[in-house]
Amino acid sequence: MEKQPRLLSSQLLLRNRVFEVTLNRTLLTWKEIQTKKKRVSGSMHNTFKLGSYCVPVSEIVAVQEAEVDKGTKDEGRWQKMSQKPIEGYPYAFTVSYVERERQHRWRCHDVTFHCSDGSLCQQWVQRIREQLSLLTSRPKHLLVYINPYGGKQQGKLIYEEKVAPLFSQASISTDVIVTEYANHARDHLKMDADLKKYDGVVCVGGDGMFSEIIHGLISRTQADCGVDQNCAEEKLVPCRVRIGIIPAGSTDCICYATVGINDPVTSALHIIVGDSQALDVCSVHHNNTFLRYSVSLLGYGFYGDVLKDSEKKRWMGPARYDVSGVKTFLTHHYYEGTVSFLPATDILGTPRDKTKCRAGCYICQHNGQLLSEDAQFYRMEDNISHSEMGGDWRMIRGKFLAINAASMSCACPRSPKGLSPAAHLADGTTDLILVRKCSRINFLRHLLRHTTKDDQFDLNFVEVHRVRKFRFMPKHCESDLELDLREGGAGGGKKLLRKICRDHPACGCTPINSSWNCDGEVLPHAAIEVGVHCQLIRLFARGIEDQPLFEDFCTPTVI
Ligand SMILES: Nc1ncnc2c1ncn2[C@@H]1O[C@H](COP(=O)(O)OP(=O)(O)OP(=O)(O)O)[C@@H](O)[C@H]1O
């Protein structure tokens, strides 16, 4: 690695020991050059071993001159940082930086260096601030929506106590809107928000709130760019503004999948350091009418039925998902219909390989790049229509217990592996999982495999395809003509019977139909057309980081 030139280097005091502190463009390092003879043994959290430590500049939250022993000023957080004077070192500055803890949790830690000279102290603060100001990906002004009723109704408190102080420490200004009704945030983003003013939009709530934000932001972007959302073939324009999620809901799956934990402070720090994680978005249409966007799970059959039933049991709280899950499992309904899909060919990765989507995912980068090159090529070849752009559609007709499209792994604390463990956040595809009619015991085997090491797709009634688009037509929606053709023109008798059954559902032989669960919302139509829009939005996240093998939780990186 190329050695960076030093911007500043001094001998400073830290916990009564002398350190050589050095700043270059990418790192702040401190190396002990003298140890005290007598060391007081302390707890794990305040023991400093002899050695060198470093913090990437990109993970410094703020730097501030520390007050030395005045203890009089009442300026919130900084009062806590007032330091005992050390003879010969009357000045001090504090660097706040990101420290990694267990299970992808981030915390903001402080280190205070003492200087003998006031101008040297100011020089350090200024130099570090200069370097921070060069980090252009950091947001300066954010629009924050808080759902006061999400989860345990703690959204406002979580924001005020855990997030706002960090934003102000990092000099991020905010406009905060506490929502007053469902879809308040969506409609405000769609019509009223002056998006040019902001570097990002933050939602404080659960997955439902996040869904509102993406609907508002994507619709607004398309409207501003003259793109018709109702046309399923349209190429949507990516959103400029990044989205941050402060988890405060009962389901925080998107946060879990993009950060690795649903923890408000961790998410706030990812926003502050200006992380950026692209995310694919599926558009869902019915008869060339836009229905909804989805980023995680589209599920017909089992997951649609669980959602529909659980909506009736809201009073039970989160336990409703378990109750409805058991009930739906016992009901064991299957649904007939036709699934057609456009497989994603020439890409890296398959739904059954062992690669997991992680921070800096090579598969997402590679496949995203491939798609944008393809799009450029087809734009040049004007006479090729969008629908001709790639590959052959495949069609599967059958009886299904579940049809799921997972655009991300859908891992969450309840199902750490997720519905499709190798699905990617931003590779331009969704994993289409078809679970055919099978016995209850077999279906249970499949479901249980979501929680064990066994491959949930390695069963003869389950198949999985990585696709760019798919359509579903339930049997009860197929036209009489299509059915006649399939049944070899079986004549007017069957047609008449079908009509009677449709018009008089009480006759009991009406085919049962399910609904689509679209990221936790029930869709009003079963016949849908879905297309994946590669990297349409960006989050203040970096994907799940690989955990180091030997974690040192109490100190910055030891070098
Ligand atoms: N002020 C409000 N009053 C009522 N509903 C609201 C308000 N603000 C947002 N909502 C709606 O509340 C729903 C649930 O919000 P959120 O996702 O934040 O919490 P949640 O507890 O995870 O919800 P759920 O368990 O239903 O997914 C969202 O669909 C959102 O549209």
Query: Per DSSP, what share of the residues sits in E-state strands of 2 or more residues?
Result: 25-35%
CATH fold-level label of the largest domain: Tumour Suppressor Smad4
**Morphology call:** elongated
CATH architecture of the largest domain: Sandwich
Uncertain stretches of 5 or more adjacent residues: 38-48, 71-80, 382-388, 500-511, 550-554
How does the major sheet shape up?
A: 10 strands, antiparallel
Helix/strand-derived category reads: alpha+beta
Cofactors, ions and other ligands in the entry? adenosine-5'-triphosphate
Topology at a glance:
Elements: E1 6-14, E2 17-24, E3 27-34, E4 52-56, E5 60-66, H1 77-80, E6 91-100, E7 106-115, H2 118-133, E8 141-146, H3 155-169, E9 173-178, H4 184-192, E10 200-205, H5 207-224, E11 242-247, H6 253-259, H7 264-272, E12 277-286, E13 289-294, E14 297-301, H8 302-311, H9 319-331, E15 335-343, H10 362-380, E16 394-406, E17 430-436, H11 440-448, E18 462-474, H12 480-486, H13 492-503, E19 516-518, E20 521-522, E21 528-539, E22 557-558
Parallel strand pairs: 8-9, 8-10, 10-11
Antiparallel strand pairs: 1-2, 2-3, 3-4, 4-22, 5-6, 6-7, 12-13, 12-21, 14-16, 14-19, 15-16, 15-18, 16-17, 17-18, 18-21, 19-20
Adenosine-5'-triphosphate binds next to helix 5.
